[in-house]
Specification:
Pfam families: Pcc1. Belongs to the CTAG/PCC1 family. This is Transcription factor Pcc1. The protein is an alpha+beta fold and 98 residues long. 38% of the residues lie in helices and 30% in strands. Strands 1-2-4-3 form a 4-stranded antiparallel beta sheet. The radius of gyration is 14 Å and the shape is elongated. The model has no long low-confidence stretch (mean pLDDT 88).
Length: 98
C-alpha cells in the first residue's frame, strides 16, 4: 500500500489532496474491494471528494478536500474499511466473483 499527499494539481478544485494505491495482484480482487467500498459515500461530499479506479490489479484512490482535517478524517476512515475488505478477501476471497 502506498499513499502520497501532494500539492493541489492544476485540475484539482480543492487545496488538499492525497493518493492511495493498493496492489492486490489480481484485477478481480481489486474490483471486488472497489465495488464493496463504492457504496460507502463520503459523509460530507461538499468538503471531501473520493475517486476510485481499478487498473492492472491495483486499486487507486484520489482524495480531495477543502481542509486538511477533512482529508485526514476521510482517509483514515477509508483505510479502516479498506483493511476490513482486504482481510475479508484474503480469508474468503478464493473463487469469489463480482
Amino acid at each position: 500500500m502506498a499513499a502520497t499527499a501532494t500539492a493541489p494539481e492544476a485540475d484539482s478544485q480543492w487545496p488538499f489532496t492525497c493518493d492511495l494505491e493498493v496492489d492486490f495482484g489480481h484485477e478481480e480482487s481489486a474490483a471486488i474491494v472497489c465495488a464493496a467500498l463504492a457504496v460507502d459515500k463520503e459523509l460530507q461530499p461538499d468538503k471531501v471528494k473520493r475517486l476510485m479506479t481499478v487498473s492492472h490489479g491495483k486499486l487507486s484512490v484520489h482524495f480531495e478536500a477543502t481542509e486538511a482535517r477533512f482529508l485526514r478524517a476521510s482517509f483514515s476512515a477509508f483505510v479502516d474499511v479498506l483493511t476490513l475488505a482486504t482481510k475479508t478477501i484474503e480469508e474468503f476471497g478464493h473463487g469469489m466473483k463480482l
